[in-house]
Amino acid sequence: MKHQIKKPLILVTNDDGINAPGIRTLIRIMRTLGEVVVVAPDRPRSAQSHSITVSSPLRLKLIEEADGYREYSCNGTPVDCVKLGTKIVLRGNPDLLVSGINHGSNASINVLYSGTMAAVIEGSIDMIPSVGFSLNDYSAKAIFDHAEEHIRQIALKVLRRGLPKGVSLNVNIPKISEQPIQGVQVCRQARGTWVEEFDERIDPRGQDYYWITGVFSKADNAEGTDIRAMENNYIAVVPTQFDFTAADAIKLIGEFDFEPKKVNNKEHQPARTING
Known about the structure:
By secondary structure, this protein is α/β, with parallel strands linked by helices. It has helices at 21-30, 78-89, 110-113, 115-125, 148-161, 226-231, 250-254, and strands at 9-13, 35-41, 60-66, 69-74, 96-103, 130-135, 167-173, 184-186, 193-202, 208-217, 235-241. It has one domain: Survival protein SurE-like phosphatase/nucleotidase (Stationary-phase Survival Protein Sure Homolog, Chain: A, 3-Layer(aba) Sandwich), CATH 3.40.1210.
C-alpha cells in the first residue's frame, strides 16, 4: 500500500480584494504546490497597513469549496483575514502564507503602508513562513505571466527551506516589458518617501474636505536596493522583520542621561511670614 504524500497547506490573502486579478493568479500558482485556503477581503483594502477591526463584527463568507481548496471572503482588513484564517478557518498555522499579487509596488517605504505586507508580517509574528508578492503595475489589467514561474519557485524554496523566525519576504516584481526578467536579487529596502499633496474642496454644505494624493520620491536607488533591482529588471526580494528595534542605536541612546534631576526641596519651600 502506497503512502500518500501530505501536501503543504497554504493560506492565501491580499489587500486588493478577493476578485482582483493578482490574487486569482496567485491562487492558481499555489494550487500547483499544495492544498490552498483563501481568506481575502471582500473589497479593496489597499494602504490599510496593520489595521484591525475592533468596532464592528467580522464576517466570513464561503465562496467555493473543492478537493484541496476552500475560498472565503471577509469584510475585514488583510490582517483580520490572517487572524480569522489561522484562528477560525484552519484552527492552526499553515505551512506557508502568501499575500498578493499586489497591483503596485511595495518596495522601499511603501512596505509600511501596505496591506499586502501587513498580512505577511502578521503571519511572521505567528512564526508562519510568509511571503508578499507585488507587481510594479497599478493597472487593474496588469499582466502577471512573465513572473509566474519565479513566484512558484520562490514559494517552493520557502516551503522546502523555511525562513528565520520572525522574518518574512517582501517580493517586488518589475512590470512586463520587452526584456525578460533578468533574475532574482536579495537586497535591502531602499530609502524613500511620499511627498503628500491635498486636493482641498468644499462640499455642498460649505464644509472643507480633502483628497490625499502624492508622489513617491526615490531618495535612494543605490546598488543593492530593491528600487535599483527593479529598475534593472530584476525581482527584488527583501527579508523583512516586525522587530523595529534600532539595534545599532541602543548603545548610543543608552548614554543619554534620562534620569530626572534631583531637586533640593529647601530651594522650593515657600518663604515663611512673621505675624505680629
